[in-house]
Design a protein that fits this description.
alpha+beta, Immunoglobulin-like, 2 domains, 5-stranded mixed sheet, 4-stranded mixed sheet, 9 strands, elongated
Length: 125
């Protein structure tokens, strides 16, 4: 039996619909920010030293006994937590990372001088 033109049209429409759904799902995946865990303790920041460029959500946890905070500076960007984190608190910071070097540190008192600082390298996509 030969397929009719209606059958061919129905198959073509079905394939277009499936392709459109797949493309929309790909866009959603691409737009979702990467998640990076950051642990703050007494005078240390634990996180990756390099990350790919793009939208990124830093999930910052204070696992220390003192209040800490988080600042990210570089590539014409300065992002910081809205408020300091008390011990055992967690907050998110969303940043659109561009390739380059960033300075990451805790701005509270002498925390940066005591070791709460690092360099983050952001690579191209």
């Amino acid at each position: 039996m030969k397929p009719t033109s209606r059958t061919r049209l129905a198959v073509a429409i079905l394939l277009l619909g499936v392709t459109a759904i797949a493309a929309a799902q790909d866009q959603t995946k691409k737009a979702s920010p990467a998640t990076v865990e950051v642990k703050l303790t007494e005078y240390a920041i634990e996180m990756p030293e390099s990350l790919p460029a793009g939208p990124t959500t830093f999930v910052i946890s204070n696992e220390g006994r003192k209040t800490h905070s988080f600042v990210l500076e570089g590539e014409a960007t300065e992002e910081k937590l809205e408020s300091s984190l008390r011990p055992h608190a967690t907050a998110n910071l969303e940043v659109a990372l561009k390739p380059g070097k960033y300075r990451v540190y805790c701005p509270i008192g002498s925390h940066e001088a005591r070791g709460m600082s690092m360099t983050l390298l952001v690579t191209g996509k």
